Amino acid sequence: MKNLQLYIFILFLGLSSFAQPKPSLKNANHLFVNRSYVDAAKMYETLKPSQEVLQNLGDCYYYNSQMDFAVKNYGQLFFSFKDSLKSESYFKYANALKGANDYEKADVIMSEYLKYQVNTKKFIENLDNIVPYDYEIQLMAKSISNGDFGMSFFGDKVVFASLRSTDKPIFNWNQKPYLDLYEATISKDGLLENIKPFSDKINTKTHESDATFSADGKTMYFSRTNSKRVKIGEEKVATVKIFKAEFVNNEWTNVIEMPFSNDMYSTEHPFLTKDGKKLYFASDMPGTLGSMDLYSVDINSDGTYTTPKNLGDVINTIHREQFPFLTEDGTLYFASDGHEGLGGLDIFMSKMYNDVFVKPLNLGKTINSNLDDFGYVLDEKANKGYLSSNRKGSDNLYSFIRKENERRFLVEGDVKDKTTKDLLPGTTVTLYDEDNKLVGQMVVGSKAEYFFNTRPNKKYRVEAIRDFYIPSNVEFTTNDEGKARFTIELQVESYDDAEDIVVTKNDGYVYIELENIYFDLNKWNIKEQASKILDVLVGLLNKYPLMEVQIGAHTDSRASEMYNLILSNNRAASTLEYLVNKGIDRKRLRSKGYGESVPLVKCGDKCTEAEHSINRRCEFRVLK
Questions:
Q1: What residues contact residue 50 under an 8 Å CB cut-off, 6+ apart?
Q2: Radius of gyration over alpha carbons of the chain, in Å?
Q3: Could you give the CA distance from residue 528 to residue 481 in angstroms, rounded to a whole number?
Q4: 128-404: which CATH topology?
Q5: For the chain, is the Cβ count within 10 Å smaller at the N or the C terminus?
């Protein structure tokens, strides 16, 4: 979606009405800071590609959803300046790559950002089996350049926001007109018809969007850009506010600003529940977890409002959550780019149980795309609705028909540390059938949740594997209810919790602590005493067949550096061969000689015999 909905609507002086300033970094940055992204991009393109130029140029294209151009500049930025970039750059580059349909490279960048592996294609495949509905969608207008988005029901009509106005000023962010609200009817073919501007008591010279109406059609809430600009940091901006209006004597009147709106932050995308008792919206107010969070307020019988309540970290992330919509049964639909998705904003659903929203579910590839998808509204009885998307390069409205997904037999759960109960994102979870054949596999995301398609009346085994942890297995049998949901919590125990001889040291690595192995002077053959110690390691490796180990040999400093390096390599290799001869797969072992380069006691030429013996050692570091 065009990012004038992304975070805040910015008002600033109409630079485009004057002659363009001379190309320079200072002038380009001035345009960029004032969110004049189209003009800023043109100027940055003429400048030498420094880190600042590439970052800002990529952002200009990113904020206007021109992902191919964003990828080009972010790619050059990462090639030349990767080590000095902030984490936010990784997030934007990964999403730009998704927007350009390069999921493989996007996963590499996103994995670096999240610090655990992601696999978007596998994620999409898994969703295909568990989403409750499939969607058939179609465009609602013949032209795709009108910038229509944000549909809402209004009796037998609909209301939406659009850039189609011809008499509004130009918004420098994207060189498009400011937004107005429009009303229309829907043809039998699902197309917008009888389109006309909404009331001029609502539409003004600034942005209006995201209307929501009471059941009787006499009250509306909507978003409007603040008419007053305030200084936030180094910028003068106009935040978005929610307004209320009433329909009296056949006209909209009594337009008032909501008390929870503010000059210093945005409140936008309101949704009024059918009973008129609660209003949901998005905001970046103080206390927000990230870019934009979802909030709710109760509407009291006297027309006052309670303090906004954040929907919490099950729904909200450090990134964007926007465009809330609730069905009568309390199911929340919203857009997010913070939960795992296909790219940009995706549409998610979350059911409410005991007044608590459960983990959101991505609605899958039949409705979401690699770009922004948002503004989901639903007529539950008809199983029809509308959404907004910029998948064709600009914001457009789509109608949809949803059909129940008959493939949905589900097992789900999460992965936790057995001792600490901490969630373990990045764990690989695999589902096997009763013949031990792989059915599905996924790497769990930030919530450490997994889900797999199953069949009724079948036996399965679900397994969790994670580096430095003992694999965990749970067996279960499905019943004959096609939509049964099994919630299995996999508890995984780390090696250092399970085994006394496995420890995590101050350097952050995990080691197997054995008695020191001694070699004769200038030799590397395994002596009888050393073999008994190594047999303990053999037993541990047999107990944990996925464990991989590096054998590191160290010498004292009583010879040349080259001699000691060769000697230590020979001793490490000899130890490895001993383990292989005891039946340990060579692929699970690494050997490395460090010579005298990593002493435990840094005493140089003045080491005592005891200190020399401490430095002469073999260490066993767990790799996996």
A1: 25
A2: 30
A3: 62
A4: Neuraminidase (2.120.10)
A5: C
Residue whose pair of structure tokens reads 């069949």 in the numeric block: 455
Please provide the DSSP assignment of 33-82 as one string: HTT-HHHHHHHHTTS---HHHHHHHHHHHHHTT-HHHHHHHHHHHHHHHG
pLDDT of 194: 95
pLDDT, residue 29, reads: 87
Residue 484 pLDDT exceeds 60: no
Task: Check: CB of residue 158 under 8 Å from CB of residue 166.
Answer: no
pLDDT tens digits, 512-537: 777 777 665 566 767 667 777 788 88
pLDDT band at 454 (very low <50, low <70, confident <90, very high): confident
Domain extents in the chain: 15-127, 128-404, 410-495, 499-622
CATH superfamily, with its number, for domain 499-622: OmpA-like domain (3.30.1330.60)
Amino acid identity, residue 15? L
Structural element, H or E, at residue 589: strand 589-595
Kindly give the pairing relationship between strand 589-595 and strand 549-554. parallel
Amino acid at 449: E
Q: What are phi and psi of 212, to 5 degrees?
A: -140, 140
Q: Do domains 128-404 and 499-622 have the same CATH topology?
A: no
Give me the residue label for tokens 């969703």.
127
The lowest-confidence range among 26-35, 225-234, 459-468, 512-521 is: 512-521
Other C-beta atoms lying within 10 Å of the C-beta of residue 511: 19
DSSP label at residue 374: E
- Convert the pLDDT of each residue in 336-370 to its tens digit: 999 999 999 999 999 887 788 888 999 999 999 99
Backbone angles phi, psi at 360, to 5 degrees: -70, 150
pLDDT for residue 488 is more than 70: no
Phi, psi angles (nearest 5°) of residue 26? -60, -45
Query: What is the spatial order of strands in the sheet that 472-477 belongs to?
Result: 438-443, 428-433, 459-465, 472-477
Q: CATH class for domain 15-127?
A: mainly alpha
Looking at 405-482, which runs of residues are DSSP E strands? 410-417, 428-433, 438-443, 449-453, 459-465, 469-470, 472-477
Contact 224, 237 (CB under 8 A): no
Q: Is the CB of residue 346 less than 8 Å from the CB of residue 135?
A: no
The answer, yes or no, to whether residue 490 has pLDDT greater than 60, is no
- CATH topology for 410-495 is Immunoglobulin-like (2.60.40)
What is the rounded average pLDDT for all residues in the chain?
A: 84
| HEC per residue, 4-43 | CCCCCCCCCCCHHHCCCCCCCHHHHHHHHHCCCHHHHHHH
Element (H, E) at 121: helix 120-130
Name the helix (H) or strand (E) containing 502: strand 502-504
* Angle between helix 87-99 and helix 67-81 axes, rounded to 10 deg: 140
What b/e readout covers 410-445, taking b as 16+ CB neighbours within 10 angstroms? bbbbbbbbbeeeebbbbbbbbbbeeeeeebbbbbbb
